[in-house]
Specification:
Elements: H1 5-27, H2 30-34, H3 53-59, H4 74-94, H5 101-117, H6 125-140, H7 154-161, H8 165-188, H9 192-195, H10 200-206, H11 212-218, H12 222-238, H13 248-268, H14 274-281, H15 288-291, H16 307-334, E1 338-340, E2 345-347, H17 354-388, H18 393-421, H19 426-430, H20 434-443, E3 464-472, E4 479-481, H21 503-511, H22 521-531, H23 534-540, E5 556-566, E6 576-588, H24 593-601, H25 618-630, H26 635-671, H27 679-704
Antiparallel strand pairs: 1-2, 3-4, 3-5, 5-6
């Protein structure tokens, strides 16, 4: 079985990159979202209840409890955590020694701390997914960097790799839960667009933040949209069990299918770091053999010579072809695929009922859990076999201790994850072992395992609902307040902001789906706009001069609900069409009884003003200086700049590597040059490197095969 050292390193780098994007994106929005003049001040969420320090930390696990000890308020502490998280993640991305469990533990704890005070703006599934993935990275990261195959003795290398695959297997299990649940909930929701295979005829237009490519995708023929839905079900429901297939080509096929789906989503939608994080999870389907760089002309596939191996290879190929055939047959049969040669199209429809699908789900949910048990048992046996290959009693004892700890942690996390996974089928949820429920309940607030299910129902079937804010000085002449990212001006093209997540724009999309009373934070937004608070204005326009009321706050603010549609091909200078629907939020002004009543109703009044803290504290001054330098920069520009800096450093390292290797090699040869005085010793010394080179060469040859 091929190893997974290279995929693990790729996974750790990917997790660091996603943490870097998440922290940097959040940092740019903290003053407007959580500052003392923000929409939902973070200080309201952390109020001491007279409990002990450790009990308080366990019940509300956030490092921000310690912010006052540093002379900072809650929002400033959140800024500090975000900055440190960004820098630490950047270091782990660039420097291999920093890919240490302690590094990822700090990243996970910092993001968990932010989520505890993030309120509705951090209640997204990808935030939970990042926390769960980040904790797995703590277990996957090595305590010390393992020696290379050329440098380490065989026994020592076996000891280093004995427990290496166990936590990494949990990444594969997480990817399975994410994809399988995301596919299943589309059908269990009874959404007519998913069952009618027409969901994508609405999706590109009604998603939160479409890209320019979404306009092009929206105007594809309907039969392509329906076929794309069929492909989505195939990739999300039928292929995830192949993640645990014993045949590596099946796992690689599943890997490329998942990558294709995520790349297409990235092209057509601004889903921040979510799809990047999903791509990071897919590294668990790879192995060293697939990622090895030695693919030159000397590298060829070894042809089995003995008849048992040849028979096993043939049976493996037949099984692989059988599975591909079953997938193809099932897709054609259950979705009624028919070729229309006259119209050059493929017709599709669902040929099964909701009851049939529910019965199928009841049948397969528990077996998928047992599939996970069987796969994990195989990983445990493999790790145990590697442990038996460790030479020397002391390395064997150390490897055994590590294996016991990692094995216990892996099994415990697997059991915990069964509870949220079973939510896809309520009957299975009730049949789980009660000890599993107790274990999950004990750590649920740490978000070590979560339930997933994206795009459950398609919204905006009669047009994309959109809330448009308006301000006025006299209550008669109203001016629209345009956001940087969400649709507003029908002539402005959709933006490309990935991997940044403008969290206010996202919540505006959710708010448009119902009355404003279902989004209490919206009243806080209106209040801050009437007060003219600059941190909130920068969430709407990073360039304050583009905000229509930047010189003087509006006297009145109201909100209207519109329906938006993509423009038709041929409409020059327009990306959208829109139609007014109704008033979303009534006109209000400061001191208005209606506004005051809503503020009291939603608990948004500042009953206790923020405590005055000294602005002369060195740490507070440093945070203020950093904020001053970065405020004019648009968040996507900052994130792309970080990405460009990482790419520049990597390119420089790649260019300098051969030069450093050439400059280092002579010194090694000089160091090991044989002494000329002892002729017999010189002969022996010269013979020894030759034998070592031969041995190394044989090992290299075997590895390449």
């Amino acid at each position: 079985m091929a190893g997974s050292r290279l995929p693990q390193q790729l996974f750790l780098q990917g997790v660091a990159a996603v943490f870097m994007f998440a922290f940097a994106s959040l940092y740019m929005q903290i003053p407007g979202l959580y500052g003392s003049e923000g929409i939902l001040p973070a200080r309201r969420t952390l109020r001491p209840q007279g409990k002990g320090r450790w009990q308080q930390l366990w019940e509300t696990p956030t490092l921000l409890w310690e912010a006052p000890r540093l002379g900072l308020d809650t929002a400033q502490g959140l800024e500090l955590l975000s900055l440190l998280g960004t820098v630490l993640a950047l270091g782990a991305l660039l420097l291999r020694p920093l890919r240490h469990p302690l590094t990822y533990l700090l990243l996970w704890a910092s993001y968990l701390s932010a989520c505890q005070v993030g309120q509705v703006f951090l209640y997204f599934q990808w935030d939970s997914l990042l926390l769960e993935t980040g904790f797995l990275a703590v277990l996957v990261a090595p305590l010390r960097q393992p020696p290379s195959c050329k440098q380490a003795p065989q026994g020592r290398l076996a000891g280093a790799l004995a427990d290496g695959g166990l936590p990494f297997w949990l990444v594969r299990w997480l990817l399975f839960r994410l994809m399988f649940a995301s596919g299943v909930v589309k059908l269990t929701s009874r959404c007519p667009t998913w069952w009618g295979l027409t969901a994508l005829t609405y999706h590109y237009e009604t998603q939160c933040l479409p890209t320019p490519a979404a306009w092009l995708a929206h105007h594809l023929p309907v039969w392509i949209h329906k076929l794309s839905v069929v492909a989505t079900f195939l990739i999300e429901i039928a292929m995830p069990p192949l993640f645990f297939a014993p045949i590596r080509r099946l796992r690689l096929a599943a890997f490329y299918a998942q990558v294709l789906l995520q790349v297409l989503i990235i092209i057509t939608g601004n889903y921040n770091f979510f799809n990047l994080l999903t791509l990071v999870l897919t590294t668990a389907l790879l192995d060293d053999q697939h990622l090895a760089t030695g693919s030159g002309p000397g590298r060829h596939r070894k042809i089995p010579t003995s008849w048992p191996k040849a028979l096993l290879t043939t049976l493996s190929l037949l099984l692989e072809l059988t599975i591909y055939g079953l997938l193809a047959y099932g897709t054609v049969h259950y979705f009624g695929l028919e070729f229309d040669w006259r119209q050059h199209s493929i017709h599709s429809r669902t040929t099964f009922t909701f009851h049939q699908f529910s019965q199928w789900l009841k049948t397969v949910t528990m077996p998928t859990m047992w599939l996970g048990v069987a796969s994990l048992a195989w990983e445990l046996l493999t790790a145990l076999w590697r442990w038996t290959q460790v030479q020397g009693w002391l390395p064997k004892v150390c490897a055994g201790i590590r294996l016991s700890i990692m094995g216990t942690a892996t099994v415990a996390l697997f059991l915990i994850s069964l509870v949220p996974y079973s939510y896809v089928e309520p009957g299975t949820h009730g049949r789980l072992w009660t000890g599993t429920h107790r274990l999950f309940g004990a750590v649920e607030h740490l978000q070590l395992a979560n339930s997933y299910g994206l795009f459950r129902r398609m919204t905006g079937l009669g047009g994309r609902p959109e809330v448009v804010l308006e301000g006025s000085y006299d209550g008669h002449l109203w001016t629209e307040i345009e956001f940087m990212y969400k649709p507003g001006n029908v002539s402005r093209s959709p933006p490309l902001v990935v991997p940044h997540q403008p969290r206010l724009d996202w919540q505006m999309w959710f708010a448009a789906l119902g009355p404003h009373t279902q989004s209490p934070w919206f009243t806080g937004l209106v209040l801050r706009l009437l007060q003219g608070k600059e941190p909130v204005i920068r969430l709407i326009q990073s360039d304050v001069a583009r905000y229509p009321f930047y010189k003087q706050p509006p006297t009145y603010v109201r909100a209207q609900r519109y329906k938006y549609w993509f423009s038709q091909p041929g409409e020059q200078g327009r990306w959208w069409r829109r139609q007014w629907v109704e008033e979303f939020f009534p006109p209000v002004s400061l001191g208005d009884p209606t506004l005051e009543s809503m503020l009291r109703q939603f608990g948004l009044q500042d009953k206790n003003p923020p405590r005055a803290r000294s602005s002369h504290h060195p740490l507070a001054q440093a945070l203020h200086w950093v904020r001053t330098q970065l405020s004019p920069v648009e968040p996507p520009t900052l994130l792309w700049g970080l990405l460009g800096a990482v790419a520049a450093v990597r390119v420089t390292q790649a260019l300098l590597a051969p030069w450093l290797l050439r400059s280092f090699t002579p010194s090694r040869e000089e160091k090991h040059k044989p002494a000329p005085k002892k002729e017999s010793g010189a002969t022996s010394t010269q013979a020894s490197p030759a034998s070592n080179n031969s041995s190394s060469g044989s090992r290299t040859t075997r590895r390449k095969k």
